[in-house]
Design a protein that fits this description.
Helices cover 10% and strands 35% of the residues. By secondary structure, the chain is mainly beta. It has a 5-stranded mixed sheet, with no helix packed on it. The model has no long low-confidence stretch (mean pLDDT 89).
Length: 113
């Protein structure tokens, strides 16, 4: 199975949810089961996208309080996502197919007070 290497960064307090570590290097599968296949490993596959990465991060790196990172199947409102320094809204949001070497940054714009 081929993999994709990514640089992941967290800021604005999100790093506190990820072992207080701002920068991570991760490898994820290049192809993942399509939503229609569910968890079936032998079903149809699709290229890994940001939506998959968000859930992979939640399941593999997140150490506490998932509700502060994920809400309704995507990052919660107030979390800015950058793909190679570009707002993910310009890249198709969760549908963006991640590529080897991409840098994905998650920054919380919500602060207590």
């Amino acid at each position: 199975m081929s993999t994709i290497s990514l640089k992941i960064e967290f800021g604005g307090g999100l790093e506190l949810l990820f072992s207080n570590q701002r920068s991570h290097r991760v490898s994820i599968p290049a192809h993942v089961p399509s939503p229609a296949a569910g968890e079936a490993a032998d079903g149809p596959m699709k290229p890994a996208d940001l939506a998959y990465l968000i859930f992979w991060l939640r399941d593999n790196l997140l150490k506490e309080r998932a509700e502060l990172f994920v809400e309704n199947g995507t990052v919660r409102p107030g979390v800015l996502v950058l793909v190679n320094d570009t707002d993910w809204e310009l890249e198709g949001e969760g549908d963006y197919e991640v590529k080897d070497g991409d840098e994905i940054v998650f920054i919380s714009t919500l602060h207590g007070g």
